Amino acid sequence: MGPGFGEVVLSRELRRACHHTLRHNLALEPGESVLIVNDGTRSGIAASFEDAARSFTERVETLRIPMADHNGQEPPVETASRMRDADVALLVGEHSLSWTRARRDATTAGARVASMPHITEEIALRTLPIDYEPIRERVNGLCDRLDAAREVRVRTAAGTDLTFSVEGREAHGRKGGIYRRPGQWGNLPCGEAFIAPLEGTARGVYVVDASHAGVGRLAKPIRITVEEGRAVRVEGGPEARRLDETLRSVGDPRAYNVAEFGIGCNPAARITGVTLEDEKALGTCHVALGRNDLFGGTVEVGIHLDGILRAPTILIDGRGIDGPG
Length: 325
Prior knowledge:
It is a single chain. By secondary structure, this protein is an alpha+beta fold. The chain folds into 2 domains: 12-127, CATH 3.40.1830.10; 133-320, no CATH class. It is 25% helix and 27% strand. It contains 8 helices and 18 strands. It has helices spanning 12-25, 43-53, 77-85, 101-108, 121-127, 133-148, 238-249, 275-278, and strands at residues 34-38, 60-64, 88-93, 112-117, 151-155, 161-165, 185-187, 192-195, 203-208, 211-212, 216-217, 222-227, 230-235, 258-264, 284-290, 304-310, 313-316, 319-320. The strands form 3 sheets. Strands 13-12-9-6-5-17-18 form a 7-stranded antiparallel sheet, covered by helices on one side. The protein has a 6-stranded antiparallel sheet with strand order 8-14-15-16-10-11. The longest helix has 16 residues, at 133-148. The termini are far apart.
């Protein structure tokens, strides 16, 4: 067991789930190098990945980093350098490193990266030891439609009516949890088709009624009014105020940019208050605020926060995603 894990007791079931991930999702080969980046949280999961990786290769290392303040914050320079040198990097901790230069540089250098912010043992046991091939097929079908689309409209019974352009933008998520080639990366659990709306085009209202990154599972929905591509009002209870305070704390109005729209495609995922899983749940969609330059947008700001909506009606150029609009 690696440094800093102390007396962590490894679960046999969790180790099996981690072994399945390394074999099925990441195609880890003997002799390859594995770097586990961990911020001191989720030690049991990090230790289980380390133990499982050692059944494939001796080149396994866990690197402890300081706890970040929020999603999208860059890790230390040394961490970024070590990520670039790894064949496989597993990001296990409290906050997401997905939309950072460190992750981008690592995958550009050929690392295969699985990002698992906020993951719990319950989520890992439910969503890791599954077949991701059918999930990837659904994601790819939605990506094809988004790639060809001009406009998306989202409505929900909770009051959402949001419209935005995606013309000329490329959808992402096609790997669907399968990261077997150099430079491939994504979340685990995975299963979302996502795209960066064209800046300045989003308008309307969306009501986050499941969970929101930076807040967790919601007791009261958060109503977000959007004009010219930015959130101009964040309304609701204490959770809405906390979200608005987090966005304002960045000190940059671009934190309110409507950065991402995504569609959940993973039938094993549930709404738990953990964005990593919630945004993948089949029958949900999500809208993120903040940074999007790393997946086709133009906004670079030090934050990226997703809000998950239940049971949306999604119209892509006027047609529903599972049939007529």
